[in-house]
Amino acid sequence: MHPRNPYRNPPDFVTLAISYPLLFPYLNEKTKTIDFKDGSAQRRLTEAIMFRDFGVKLEIPEDRLCPPVPNRMNYVLWIQDIVYAHRDVLETRPRRIRGIDVGTGATAIYPILACKMEGTWDMVGTEIDDMSFTYAQRNVASNDLRNRIDIRNASKEGRILFPLEKPNEKYDFCMCNPPFYASAAEVEDLAREKELPPNAVCTGSDIEMIYPDGGEAGFVGRMVEESETFQTRCKWYTSMFGKMSSVTRIVEMLRQRSIPNYAITEFVQGQTRRWAVAWSYTDAHLPDSAARIPNLPPNHVLAPFMPPRNTLSQPLSLTKEPRPRFERVCTIVSEVLGLIDGVTALERPESEKGEKGVFFVEAKANKWSRSARRKKTRLKDVVDEGNSTLGSKASETSEGASNLSSGSAAPALTCSLRVRPAEAEVVEGHYLLEFQWMFGRDRGLFESFASHVGRKVGVQLEANTRPLGGVA
Ligand SMILES: C[S@@+](CC[C@H](N)C(=O)[O-])C[C@H]1O[C@@H](n2cnc3c(N)ncnc32)[C@H](O)[C@@H]1O
After folding, report:
1. pTM for the complete prediction?
2. pLDDT tens digits, residue range 128-145?
3. E strand or H helix at 136
4. Ligand 1 pocket, mutate which of 177, 209, 219, 267 (most atoms under 8 A from CB)
5. Are residues 258 and 286 in the same domain?
6. Looking at the record, which segments are called Disordered (predicted)?
């Protein structure tokens, strides 16, 4: 489950039923839980959670999918991670975020959750099934969300991503819980393969569950094709998957089409596992915490499909005593950054998250390679002169990190650099420099910058530290 998911632990059904009494008749007297194989009990549970936690009154038809809130919440939280990955650098003031939910279903669960969780988000929900479309519109209207959620009718002949056809409509993300199966036979085969009956009944109708042109991989494959036309009109295209094999097929498709900027995540809830893939035509890169499944064993089926790392850690393995204090490391980092030609660095004000030692860095071009460096005065000489370039640069751009670029040309590289005390069991040495690639086309540039800064900071720290047991 997502670490911010408030439903990590099962709810107390009795307390929930007190807030939403229609749930009471479905509580088992002994266990005080509901029977998840009972469709009506499931519907009351979803209604109860949405009512108690979001003040939303949902109308859920009997013969359409009943969305489990904890599972849907996982996906919205991941979308939050994606949308806010670059907020610290880009946003000088809050702006409205726009998203599309493809196949929103009768409850319009994703748009309603997203808009209730985020006051500055607006959503378009698309739906092809007339009955779900009518219910979705009703659920949006009865919760007074018509000015923020627009439910649009999709057609079989039209594009899945048709809201992007309007050139003046730009979106931050699209999300999708696609029809999973390719045929009714596949639904039956999979149920038989599982041997045991599913622990929760599925109330989905054929139109919700089946996409005859290849199931979920076919559906999202079409989204990938269409996204090639729309490119950056939507910043992040995403979809959820019920089968791991679909994830690998979509990643193969992205690679074949030279779309290198993508992310994979996994949602685990009890015995249910789901995956999601995001891809983008922008040069914005996500932190590994959002772009890669953590702690994946190397022999895992998905391991070869993971995107390359956007978060690089450089350990500072300091051999001399005394170990430098955290503030000293931050000073050296700021001095090293300030001395690289064409690099602008700004230390984030400590107050923001109570965190020190976080720098936002922009580089116009590679000025740190060996040949470029040969032209420069030696670092040590300049540091000895007490030059602290970063300080003066920071004061020039004190309005915020989004003003990092002073020139007109777009930077070739934007990244953050975080000084972190290293945990002894993770790495020998006391500090880590954690580089987070945020913007840029050239991955090599980012990697060489991280290794250059890591090396320089290490050398400077050793040079400024008294040798073990020796004279200062
Ligand atoms: C698995 S259901 C997901 C419903 C809802 N989003 C949820 O998570 O509970 C898939 C939905 O996609 C809809 N759908 C299928 N093809 C579509 C298309 N081309 N455009 C829009 N919606 C579509 C189905 O009618 C169904 O409501």
Report:
1. 0.88
2. 999 999 999 999 999 999
3. helix 130-142
4. 177
5. yes
6. 386-408
